[in-house]
Specification:
Residues 6-229 form the ABC transporter domain. It comes from Lutibacter oceani. Part of the ABC transporter FtsEX involved in cellular division. Important for assembly or stability of the septal ring. Belongs to the ABC transporter superfamily. By secondary structure, the protein is of the alpha/beta class. The protein has one domain (4-222): Rossmann fold, CATH 3.40.50.300. It is 32% helix and 27% strand. The protein has seven helices and ten strands. Strands 6-7-8-3-9-10 form a six-stranded mixed beta sheet, sandwiched between helices. A four-stranded antiparallel beta sheet has the order 2-1-4-5, with helices on one face. A hairpin with a 2-residue loop joins strand 4 (59-64) and strand 5 (67-68). Helix 3 (99-109) crosses helix 4 and helix 5 runs parallel beside helix 6. It is globular and about 45 Å long.
Length: 229
């Protein structure tokens, strides 16, 4: 039997006091790669924010990586996020320090103390995204695609049970988007579970996977035709 890593039943997703998605029923099992699509304002980002504790799940029931979203307390949110790898559209790198120090900052913030173990872990995740020779670079010295690879490496630091990627290719050109997508697929093939919000339908055709759509205040699965490419 498949192991559920994310489950929502009859959930209602709010942005401030506005209901953006109702009757959300969603299960993602360990090892799945799932796309989340929909137009701007359809509720994609609000759903993602609810999953990592930025918005409260006020109605319905939900659990994610062992945390109950209904009873999630503010002090528990950092512990939830340590079990999630979150990748944002705008990278969110610290511009005043190099790649290595960006990743070290996250490890120290999540309780790591041994310098040698931190270095080993940082080089391990950089190798997974093909950036092991860029550890000394400052963010402004990197292309958008390279910065997103670093952001993905950062998301892998604490061996997350689930990666939430919110429009990770939204600021990238088509060729770079494909490169970043290949990195995410390699990570998925290594056993990670990924939920990726996107509006890039070309990527979905090129890398077909289970696809959920936010539209008209509802979430439902859609069947994508496979690309012949």
């Amino acid at each position: 039997m498949s192991e559920s890593i994310l489950s929502l039943q009859n959930a209602q997703i709010f942005q401030r006091e506005n209901l953006v998605l109702s009757h959300v029923n969603l299960t993602i099992n360990k090892g799945e790669f799932v796309y989340l699509i929909g137009k701007t304002g359809s509720g994609k980002s609000s759903l993602m924010k609810t999953l990592y504790g930025d918005l409260t799940l006020e109605k319905g029931t939900g659990s994610i990586v062992g945390f109950n979203l209904n009873t999630l307390k503010e002090k528990e949110i950092p512990f939830l996020r340590r079990k999630l790898g979150i990748v944002f559209q705008d990278f969110k790198l610290l511009n005043d320090r190099n790649v290595f120090e960006n990743l070290k900052f996250v490890l120290k913030a999540t309780g790591w103390k041994d310098a040698a173990k931190m270095k080993t872990k940082i080089m391990e995740v950089l190798a997974k995204v093909g950036m092991e020779t860029k550890d000394f670079k400052m963010p402004f010295q990197l292309s958008g695609g390279e910065q997103q690879r670093i952001a993905i490496a950062r998301a892998l630091l604490n061996d997350p049970d689930l990666i939430l990627a919110d429009e990770p290719t939204g600021n990238l050109d088509p060729a770079t988007s494909v490169d970043v997508m290949k990195v995410l697929k390699e990570i998925h093939n290594s056993g990670k579970t990924i939920l990726m919000a996107t509006h890039d339908y070309a990527l979905i055709l090129k890398f077909p996977c289970k696809t959920l759509k936010c539209e008209g205040g509802e979430l439902f699965e859609v069947v994508q035709q496979k690309s012949s490419v």
